[in-house]
Every structure is written in C-alpha cells, then in structure tokens.
Amino acid sequence: MQTTGQLRRIVAWLRRPELLVFLPAITLAGFWYGGEPVLVALAIGVPFVVTFGGAFRLHPQAAPPDMLSGMIQRPQLLSMIDTILAREEETGQTTACLVVLFDDADRMLDRHGRTARVEILSRNADRMMGAMRGGDVVARLEGGGFAIALAPVRRVDLESLVQIASRLQEAVQIPTSLDGTHVYMTASVGFCLAARAPDSTGTALFNAAYLAAEEALRNGPGAIRAFQPDMTRKRVDREAFRAELENALDTGQIVPWFQPQTSTDTGAITGFEALARWQHPERGLVAPGEFLPLIEEAGLTERLGEVILYHALGALVRW
Fold first, then answer.
1. 54, 15 in Cβ contact below 8 A?
2. Which of 141, 182, 253, 279 is the most exposed place for a label (fewest CB within 10 A)?
3. Are the CB atoms for 61 and 19 separated by under 8 Å?
4. Is 23 helix (H, G, I), strand (E, B) or coil?
C-alpha cells in the first residue's frame, strides 16, 4: 500500500503542466544518453500522459461544490443543543451558542448579486468551520448568517467565547477573490452561555444568542455582544417604538418645516430646505436629534424621505 501511494504521488507530480517547460531539454538529454529508443519512448509517452493524465483540460474545471448545500440548518442545530442540555446533569458537560451576522449584508447583495452572495457565504462557511474545534457544529441561517454550537465541554466562560468570536471574525475578514476583485466582509457576533439562557432548551439558547448578535450588529461593524436578560425587553421596546414611528409617518404627525435659502449676492429667496419635525400628540414637539436616529435604526429612512417629499411638493402647489 505504501508503494502504491508513493507511485501515485510520483505520477501526480509528473502530470503537473509546468513540467512541460522542460520537455525540449528532457528530449535532447534522452537522445544523447539513450539514443533513438529513448527518443521514441518520449514521443509516445508524453502525448499519452498529457492526453489521458489530465495535465491540460480542454474544458474549464468544474466549480467547487456549494459549501452551504452540505451544511446543517437551524432545526438540526437546535436538536443537537437539546441533546447536550438534556444530558448535562448526567455528563457534567455544557455548551454555548454563537450567531454570526454579516455587516452590510444588503449592500453586498445589491453590489454583487445573489450568485456571488452564495459563493461568498460558502467560502466564509468553510473558513469558519476551519476556525472551530473538532465536534463544534456550524449551521447556516435563512437570512445569510451562521450559528455555532460548541461541542460538549466541562466548562466554558465569557472570555473563551470572546476569543472564539474573535477567531470567527478574523476568518470572515479574509478577502474573497471574486471575478478578479477582492470582496472584504466584516461580521458581528453574539453569543450566549447555556447557564445564562432564559430556558434549558436549544431554541431558548439560540434565540438568546441571536438577540445578542442583533445588538452587536446595531453597534457594529465588527462588534461582539454577550446575551443580557434586558435585551429581550429592549427588543420589545424597539418593536413598539417602530410601530409608533410608522403610525406617525402615516397619520401626518411628522411633517416638514421649511427654512428659506437666500442668495448672498441679491438677498432673494432661492429655495427652501425641508426639515423633518415630529408633532407628537402627547409629548408635543419632538426634537429631530431624538427621533431621526431611531428612524434610521428602524429602517424607515426611505419612508421618511417619501413623506417629506410629498408634503414639500404639496406646499409648492399651494404656494
């Protein structure tokens, strides 16, 4: 078996295309030292190796298989965590969950398209799996992120999880070569220890890690956050405030105030600047610096622009 393996390595080495650069010198040396029999052998053997050995391919090499298609998904990850937690008292081993979310994922999709997005995610999945220990499981998420469940361990603490999160971020930061260009990505990571999860289930542990990842994403790029119990309340408050902002935009509570722009040469009014103001029915006038960052965080910036433009055009008609 060892001889067969060595023979295969030698054949693979001889099939390398760059060795054909030395073909003229090899042929001349063979003719000098071996005469016509060696020359005939080279004339027959080299084309045989090139044609059937695969040194050159007449068709492009097939693309590597999609790493994402072979990865487990969230249900399998949750089942694995449930098994570890159910046996925790028996084995004395625990686990933790990390969630990796890519910064500016929407921008990546708009710039490179869905096909390139799959390729980028696939390569990052491969890198992250290489950064983890044997037994750790990496699962892909529907939105494009990844979740990691640690293999059962006797003890895991915040410091070790921060180090793991940093390794995952370093793996993501390696540029991906795509169509002759380098794509640079960053990621934010959230994690939760099994002992700090709201409940001893895989779903509770994953949801806690995902909440931490969302908090990291809001404070990113490249942030790391550990789950804290008050994150659930903050999420509920954000969702309630988003609903309040949407209602304010729909019911006309947020309207433009117009600030005239004048010419420094003539003093004539040349236009107006539309400034968003929120006339809250209970709190009165809300300062822009208080609600505009919340509008951006809630993803309502485009909706705000539409509302202000609508009112501005209506004012032009009235004027």
1. yes
2. 182
3. no
4. helix
